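Lab notebook, page 48
Experiment: co-folding of the full assembly
Goal: obtain a model of how the components sit together before planning crosslinking
Operator: M.T.
Materials (sequences as entered):
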Amino acid sequence: MWRRTKTPVGLLCALALLLVSLEARGDEPAGPAPTPPQKEVDPAIFEGAVKAYHARNFPAAAAGFWRYIRAGTIAVDKYESAQFLLAESLSHLGLWHAAANYYYQVAKTRSQPEIFPLSLARLEAMSRYMPFDEALIYKDLLYDSEFGSLPPVLFDWVNYVQGLFDYRNGYLDWAERHFDAIHASSAYAMRAQYVRAVYAIKNSRDDTGLKLLDQIVASAASDPQTKNDALLAQARLHFDRGQYQEAWDTYGQVKQIDFSYEQAQLMLEKAWTAFRLHDHRRAMGLLHALYAPSYAKFLLPDAFILRGLILKDLCHFLDVKGVVRNFRVAQGPAIVALHRRTPTDKIPLLVEGVREQGPLGAIAQVIASLQSERKLIQSYASVWEDVALDKNLRRLYDLELREQQRLWDDSFAKAADSVAETLLETEEQMSLLDYEAGLDIFRRVKSNRATQTVQEPLTVPYDSAKAYYEFDTEFWNDELHSYSYFVNNRCLETDIEP
Amino acid sequence: MSTTRGLCLAWICGVALTSSVPSARAQSDELEDAPRVFSIQPRPYRLGHEFQLGIGVLPLDAYYVGVVAFAGYTYHFSDFWGWEIAGAGYSANFSTGLKSQLSAKYGLTPVGDSAAQIKVMTATSLIIKPLFGKLAVFNSNTLYAETFFSLGLGWTNKGDSNYPAGALGIGLRFWLRQTVSIRLDVRDYLVFVKAAPDHVLLFMLSAALNYYDRPDGSGD
Amino acid sequence: MQTVFLVLTTLTVGAPVVHADSDDATWSQESFEKELAQRAEKVSLIQNRKFELRHEVTLGVGALPADPYFKGLTVGAGYTWNFSPSFAWEVANFTYSFDFSSHIKQQVLAHAILTPGQPPSFPQITWFAATHIVVKPIYGKQALFNTRVVHLEAYLLLGPAVVNQTGPNDRFAVGLDGGVGLRLHLTQLTSFRLDAGDLLYVAPHSAKNALRFCAYVAFNLGTEP
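Observation: model returned without errors.
Model output:
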């Protein structure tokens, strides 16, 4: 069954893209050096490598398989098996990106049907667990390809990726055809549903989006990440519509699965929701959790604003000024640099801010992963230098790093400008807050016309179904969403208009 | 005109600086008004009807070591108070060999109270549980635990006679799940054979089966 | 070729799971995914742990309550190097025992006066010294009346010991000392330890054990402020 391009022009474009992507990878995508055709390779090399593999001597096995690949060509017997087993050996050694490259080659060539689904399965698992080169796996391998019969999990994955890219490219009919082919009980069916929901919301069909998100949350097939994403999207929609209680209830269902920037952002959004519900204790408690070391490193200028607003509502004006001061200490150097028109890539705080989030965050993770794996190659250099495998792998990683850096450079300016704008806006708001707090400090109230609500002293019940742990510098991960901040409201009520 | 204006400005500044502003006075209470942050979490495990089965040891007597099989039932009124309605232990005693050594080497035999062995101890005890918390095992898994104290009255069978006894204890409980927990108890039975009581120290490890039947939210 | 076929059929998607720790290097999809999952950066349960011990000096009192012939009231001191939150080395622990004759010993001696011959001697522990490996698997907190938080730690000790006894024979004995302990952190500099253990020692003519209990005040030196 042939599909894909709607017009010859499209076909030419796809071919052109394929050529360009191959060229961007350098001479060859880290495959074997060109060898004379039809050269017979000693099968003992392969057998020896398999033996080493079974003996769990993965460095020696990798060297053996590489030697076999380098000596032969794709026409040689067991060539793809050697590629696959090289990938397996590299995976065992923690060189996942290099392994992905060889799995990709096996999956691309597809000349040995017994290995092809295995390679694809490895790539599918990698796509779920680690940052990887989307262009290589998704665009180059999956999108624009026909695979024939596949095991159910891989079939669903391939259709999901193809549908996702069709959505991104605006081919909705093709996308729906792919998504409809996914098995209903598969986790990818719910991911496809999520894509549909996001598309609906982007096109201002909030109700449709909400319905789709409800289905994802209710489905047993959803994996935890997709469910979390769906709940988050629902909560945000509720917040945007002013349905703060519903937003709060939905945020409460989102699970803390890691300590990423997205989780910190979730905490901040919950804090804003609590603020809208006039629950200052919970809002400040959530902001307090952002001081935890795993979150403190993230750039969240909004947190300062919210903290200042809440303290101002409670008439702790000196504390508001303290928040403004802290903001200026933390973000001041970056703001001064922006005012001086320093290039954004020379402002460390901005670069860090860009690295944390969005598509550039994903690229940063891939780069970090590539750099750390590249260092591992040295550990096996003594075994590999005879066959130049270490040299080949370093070249592979260098090429990949260059490509990721290029993607980074392409998108950095726009992303950095967005972060810079946020910082400058926050600075303005902090200045306004500072000014208003200053005014409020000296606002005159006649003592005989002012009243203050007598507040109950804080009493913690000694016998309770709840456990109360007073914060004392230690952050326990399971407590991060359960802090409550107790402070007296110092405001005076008066019947005189200010 | 300028003098009048200057005087007005001075008057305004003076008023601004010297007028008593309640909010400014409130600022001075800052030190007494420090914020407190609590993590408030529902207790993951709650006790109701507790059935305890344990094994313990009476290690300190010179003449014998007692291996105790213990059973008890405790009703927990709340997360702070409980009543061990009945707790009883039977001691299987093993000679340390001292008796035969004294007899063989020195021709001495212990008599009276010295020779008497604890066989049964029972008590009914008030349980107080003032400490509840969590423990990190190698900083990766959470174990919930509570510390409790017991104060009780009962009787012991020592030798062939029964004597009144008091029981003071401290224990640690580790939850495995809602229905099962592991307890470590140390109890001092004050056995009133005479006016000055004898101390009998019991170290015990037990499994506790819990049945909780109160509605969710009770005790909040 | 047969070997390749064997490798590949075992690796086939949907094949029975091969345990990752088997000698066979073939990798099931499940093991592959487990290995991938372990790449994720581990975040510890507790961040910004409040009490971290470094160089610990202990002073304490205790008891050797189990010997039938004497009861020892002990004083002890030690130094522990806490090189990680979960492991430490109690480099040296020295305990001196002030011994008091038990009721049984007094009666035996009273009886012995009436009989001819050498009065019996009862070797008593004078002092013992040990070095321990300390494993501290548990650290946590409990809310006291829901208003205060107390921090606790539980640990295990094991190591060789040297025992000095009274008496003409068996002066020195070597053995093993092991036990468990509970620590209550009071401040950054001080904590309270309760140890319970058993000292097993072997001299040329005897093998014995001594149950010991000790309460220490521990001073934590060398922590960063």
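Interpretation: Chain A has 22 helices and five strands.
Next step: discuss with group before ordering constructs.
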